[in-house]
Every structure is written in C-alpha cells, then in structure tokens.
C-alpha cells in the first residue's frame, strides 16, 4: 500500500511538470486522508518550492508531530503551532479559506508561507536557520525564551 501511495504522489508531481514545466503544480492538489503527514509534506513542499526537511524539522520542534498539540498557553494549535489570527491572516494572503484545525491545511499553508515571506514568524524556523537555537524576549509575555530545535 505504501508503494502505491508513493507511486501516486510521484505521478502527480511528474504529470504537473509535463503539463507546465515552468511551474511545479499550478492547481491545488486534493490531499486525501490516505496520505501520511510526511507524504503530504512531500507533495505540498514540491508544489510551493519549500524545503521539506526544514518543514519536518519545524513540525518536530513545534509539536513533536502531535496534530492536536496546544502551545503558548493555549493560543497555538496543531502540528505547526499556528495562532488562529496568524493562520487566518496567512490564509487570506494565500487566497483560500482553510481550516485552522486541519493538519493538512496547516501543512499546506506553512509550505506556501515559508516561500512567501512568513517563515520567520515561527521561532522554530529561526532556531533551525540559526544552528538549532534561538533566543528572544516576548514583550507580550514579558519573558525571555530559548528555543532549541534538533537539526
């Protein structure tokens, strides 16, 4: 079954290149629940030109792959620890109505967001790009934070 899924994902990506070799995938793909999170990351990363390894490291750092993780005192949710307002703002810029609670939509939006100037909004991204560690002071929480992400 795994081999079949990999073949389907590969065929979708290859067919998109044959149709329009200057763009990876012009139209949004419908990701079905049969695809694993990692397979969804591979598809959306290819679609938006995102480094899938960075996205996977961000997910590991943000939520430990827990799709219903809560963080920031309950203000952040899901695999990529989106705040609802940030998710909605990015989705509006993306141009589609997306579901904040959907892991697939979080992966899709993050894949797009990383390539469109929003990557630094994740402290995990900053930590990864800074060798695995990022420190900052939150004026909102009036507290100093140290973020460490495995590389």
- CATH level 1 name: Mainly Alpha
Structural class: mainly alpha
Radius of gyration: 16 Å
Overall shape: globular
- Regions with pLDDT < 50 over 5+ consecutive residues? 16-26
Percentage of residues in helical conformation = 40-55%
Number of distinct helices: 6
CATH architecture type:
Orthogonal Bundle
Characterise this structure.
This protein is mainly α. It has one domain: Orthogonal Bundle (Lysozyme), CATH 1.10.530. 48% of the residues lie in helices and 12% in strands. The protein has helices at residues 2-19, 37-48, 52-63, 84-94, 103-115, 123-129; strands spanning 70-71, 76-77, 82-83, 133-138, 143-148. The strands form two sheets. It has a three-stranded antiparallel β-sheet with strand order 1-2-3. A hairpin with a 4-residue loop joins strand 2 (76-77) and strand 3 (82-83). 28% of the residues are buried.
List its salient traits.
single chain, 151 residues, mainly alpha, Lysozyme, three-stranded antiparallel sheet, two-stranded antiparallel ribbon
């Amino acid at each position: 079954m795994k081999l079949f899924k990999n073949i389907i994902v590969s065929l979708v990506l290859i067919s998109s290149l044959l149709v329009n070799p200057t763009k990876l995938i012009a139209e949004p793909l419908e990701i079905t629940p049969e695809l694993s999170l990692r397979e969804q990351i591979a598809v959306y990363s290819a679609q938006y030109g995102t480094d899938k390894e960075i996205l996977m490291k961000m997910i590991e750092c943000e939520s430990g792959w827990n799709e219903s993780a809560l963080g920031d005192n309950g203000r952040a949710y899901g695999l990529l620890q989106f705040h609802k307002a940030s998710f909605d703002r990015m989705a509006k810029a993306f141009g589609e109505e997306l579901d904040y609670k959907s892991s697939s939509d979080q992966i899709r939006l993050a894949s797009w967001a990383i390539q469109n100037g929003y990557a630094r909004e994740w402290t995990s991204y900053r930590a990864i790009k800074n060798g695995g560690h990022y420190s900052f002071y939150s004026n909102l929480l009036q507290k100093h934070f140290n973020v460490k992400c495995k590389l």
